[in-house]
Specification:
3-stranded antiparallel sheet; 9 strands; 196 residues; alpha+beta; Rieske Iron-sulfur Protein
Length: 196
């Protein structure tokens, strides 16, 4: 083999070796950057669906949970509260829950839930983000109060379906997160039939 052929062969070998080592180096350097884009276990857990056992929940009681960093109340409504909801349609701003982004489609009804006895709601006032007080007893706020939520910041009132009364500072109903009833009777917040 001539000296020129050996030199060319050596150059080809060195070019190939440097390319392989460089490619491996780029791959090892890229792995941490790509891993950075994956959500952490804490982040995944914060957005995960939450199962709630409502079997021991009595009428007028609530369970407080956190889903996606927000409070969520699961409330068992009394029969009287369920029966009173249709009579409040003339007094609330959005009786049919027409603002679609406030609740899933299956909650666009008078009780704003899959199960009329349960209300699943994010208790953050749609006016300025205060947490309303839960006042389920009729007459506990004033004589025509049917029970519901009262925001102490600016006086917004919501019925037992989270629908805002007319003339209140809050522009829309309280948000209803996606939820479903699992096969074992557990309530699953953060997941509905379409996403299972």
């Amino acid at each position: 083999m001539s000296e020129e052929g050996a030199s060319r062969s050596r150059r080809r070998f060195l070019t190939g070796a440097v390319s392989v080592v460089g490619g491996v180096g780029v791959a090892y350097t890229a792995v941490p950057f790509l891993a950075y884009w994956k959500p952490s276990a804490t982040t995944r857990a914060a957005g995960a669906p939450v199962e709630v056992d409502t079997s021991t929940l009595e009428a007028g009681q609530r369970i407080n949970i956190t889903w996606r960093g927000q409070p969520v109340w699961v409330i068992r409504r009394s029969e009287a509260a369920i029966e009173a909801l249709p009579s409040l349609n003339d007094r609330v701003s959005d009786p049919e829950s027409a603002v679609a982004d406030q609740q899933p489609a299956y909650a666009q009804n008078v009780h704003r839930s899959i199960d009329p006895s349960l209300l699943v709601v994010v208790p953050i006032c749609t006016h300025l983000g205060c947490i309303p007080s839960f006042m389920p007893r009729p007459g506990s706020l004033d004589s025509d109060w049917e029970g519901g939520f009262f925001c102490p910041c600016h006086g917004s009132r919501f019925d037992m379906a989270g629908r805002v009364y007319r003339g209140m500072p809050a522009p829309t109903n309280l948000p209803v997160p996606p939820h479903r009833i699992a096969a074992d009777g557990m309530l699953v917040v953060g997941e509905d039939e379409e996403t299972v």
